[in-house]
Design goal:
The complex is a heterotrimer, with one copy of chain A (241 residues) and two copies of chain B (190 residues). With 241 residues, chain A is mostly helical. Chain A has nine helices and three strands, in the order H-H-H-H-H-H-H-E-H-E-E-H. A three-stranded antiparallel beta sheet of chain A has the order 1-3-2. In chain A, strand 2 (221-225) and strand 3 (232-236) form a beta hairpin. In chain A, helix 2 (31-46) crosses helix 3. Chain A is elongated, with a radius of gyration of 27 Å. Residues 1-9 and 158-169 of chain A have low confidence and may be disordered. Chain B is 48% helix and 14% strand. Chain B contains nine helices and six strands; from the N terminus they run H-E-H-H-E-E-H-H-E-H-H-E-E-H-H. Chain B is elongated. Chain B is α+β, with helices and mostly antiparallel strands and 190 residues long. The chains are: A mainly alpha (241), B alpha+beta (190). Chains in contact: A-B, A-C, B-C. Chains B and C meet through helix 1, helix 4, helix 6 and helix 7 of B and helix 1, helix 2, helix 4, strand 4 and helix 6 of C.
């Protein structure tokens, strides 16, 4: 009777994904735990298929904050602006709030029944249809009401078409890694991080940064940053060895 | 399982008279037990605080509203009829007129709220009729009655002003609420 | 005239939910008296020998069969279709249930993702309803429907576990709570 079906074939949003990753590792929601799941999160986002196109912006926005957290854990000296700090605290709080409702929902899932548990009865049994047209209504009243209904529905639409949010350049992590390696090989010397990005969309910088982290981890590149906020210089490890 | 409670639930939801046989089957109890419980229910309804009565005829049973409350019930029924069309009823009637034959769920979607009660009233007043949906069992399609059309002085539904325009207008695009993409800072308070 | 008996007759005859206003009009008694009698009726139905429930939603009242008799009644009622929930639907419904009436942007904020599509689906399935936001003409407010409560077997929304706590606090206070209390808000399933 208590048949409840959870379909987890995909993540409906960034918070669901993030929470899953944290809970898999049995962690509390803290900055440290967020930092520790950043790579898994980014790896998942990097594989985003067409299914998620409409929500890609939401996933990337969270990814940006995660990268900020990650950077802070790698570079303890990294100064963050108060705005960025707020962003980090905000993400933790929102994740906690999301978890609250998720848990409340799981509680309810147990009492959910596929069919209603209570039933009404046929209404007005034995009452027959008596033609009683309202006196005051004319055809033009119906037309006016109809115009109003459509006006109301149309006013709900905002001017900005939803596609605007969807059309983000989607660059896969693999493509980015390949492109960086290709350019490093071609340059045979240090190149600037900024030159690795095409149009300066935050999402692309993010993917580039992520690609660099991956390459660093695999010891395929070396990076150097002389000053805080200074240029990041990237060099192929093969050039050095 | 408490037999008397189950029997009351069964009789209540059915509306139609139910035979002893059906009650026995549906409750899964012995006939004698069922009969005894029905007697008990009957007695309970005889209390003056109850508004119900157990009507027995030819080994069938039906719950009815108590005869002594006939006056108030009549007032409800006629009151419901005489009332002017509320704005929500007008909205509902309009949707049925311009978009009919139309299913309940579509009406609900346009209005955003459950329209069951209002539709029922419109049917009882003879303004709207429902037919079986040929494409989906257990679903109905609602349209304006010929009677009401006549009353409006129209010989066919197409004579409603702007009928063509509103009848064919694509609704799908309008029904998606696309107000914001979320992820605003948490500061936004309700 | 015995008010409680009259009210039971009215609710029984209608079958559909009736507003307090209609009950007051049809019974001809003062609102406070009607309310008191409805409470009494509710209590009477809570006895285990009763097969009925007084269901209250959105300031309307309706008599329904008792949730515990679901199995027996279900056999009799045809054409009820099954409502499976995906985890996304469950998530969305929970937020709307505890926080409703709630705007889209607030739902998006909690879920961290655009909820337009799922809300549209839930309205279509009659589990959520939307109304115009009285304070902002171009926005909707979402609430759960009576149908949703019927699937949970609750006779009013206040019966949701911890409803008071999570409904009344504003979102910011809730955020402060979950952040400061070590994040273990809900545990026991009821």
């Amino acid at each position: 009777m208590m048949s409840f079906v959870v379909t987890l074939e995909k993540f409906s949003g960034p918070l669901e994904l993030l929470l899953k990753l944290i809970e898999e590792k049995h962690l509390e929601i803290t900055e440290i735990s967020l930092s520790s799941v950043t790579e898994d999160y980014l790896a998942w986002v990097a594989q985003v298929k067409g299914d998620y196109m409409e929500n890609v912006a939401d996933f990337l926005q969270v990814a940006a904050t995660l990268l900020l957290i990650k950077s802070r854990s790698i570079l303890p000296t990294l100064e963050v602006t108060s705005e960025e700090k707020e962003e980090i605290i905000d993400l933790q709080a929102r994740l906690a709030l999301y978890k609250l409702f998720k848990d409340l929902g799981l509680n309810l899932a147990n009492s959910w029944s596929l069919q209603p548990k209570m039933f009404g009865r046929p209404s007005w049994v034995g009452k027959t249809i008596v033609f009683t047209p309202p006196k005051e209504i004319r055809a033009k009243n119906l037309t006016e009401a109809c115009q109003l209904i459509f006006q109301k529905l149309e006013s709900q639409l905002i001017l900005q078409p939803p596609e605007a949010a969807i059309r983000l350049p989607v660059i896969s992590l693999q493509d980015k890694i390949a492109s960086i390696l290709g350019r490093l090989a071609a340059a045979k010397s240090k190149i600037h991080f900024n030159s690795l990005n095409g149009e300066v969309a935050r999402e692309e910088i993010l993917i580039t940064f992520l690609a660099l982290l991956e390459l660093l981890k695999d010891n395929k590149v070396k990076v150097q940053q002389d000053d805080l906020f200074g240029e990041i210089e990237v060099e192929s490890a093969e050039n050095i060895n | 399982m408490i037999l008397i409670s189950v029997l009351e639930s069964l009789l209540f939801t059915s509306g139609e008279p139910l035979s002893l046989e059906i009650l026995v089957k549906a409750s899964g109890e012995a006939e004698a037990e069922v009969k005894k419980a029905l007697e008990e229910l009957k007695k309970r309804y005889e209390e003056e605080t109850s508004g119900l009565t157990l009507f027995e005829h030819d080994e069938t049973y039906q719950i009815l509203s108590k005869a002594t409350n006939q006056m108030s019930v009549q007032k409800l029924v006629s009151g419901v009829f005489e009332e002017k069309l509320t704005s929500t009823a007008l909205e509902c009637l309009t949707i049925v007129a311009y978009r009919g034959p139309i299913g309940r769920s579509q009406i609900d979607l346009i209005r955003g709220v459950n329209s069951g009660y209002i539709l029922h009233q419109l049917v009882l007043r003879g303004l709207v009729e429902r037919r079986n949906n040929p494409n989906r069992s257990n679903a109905f399609l609602y349209s304006i009655t010929a009677n009401y059309l006549k009353h409006l002085g129209l010989s066919r539904i197409e004579e409603l002003p702007h009928y063509e325009e509103y009848h064919t207008k694509d609704l799908q695009a309008l029904l998606n609420d696309v107000t914001s993409t979320g992820l605003e800072p948490v500061k936004a308070s309700e």
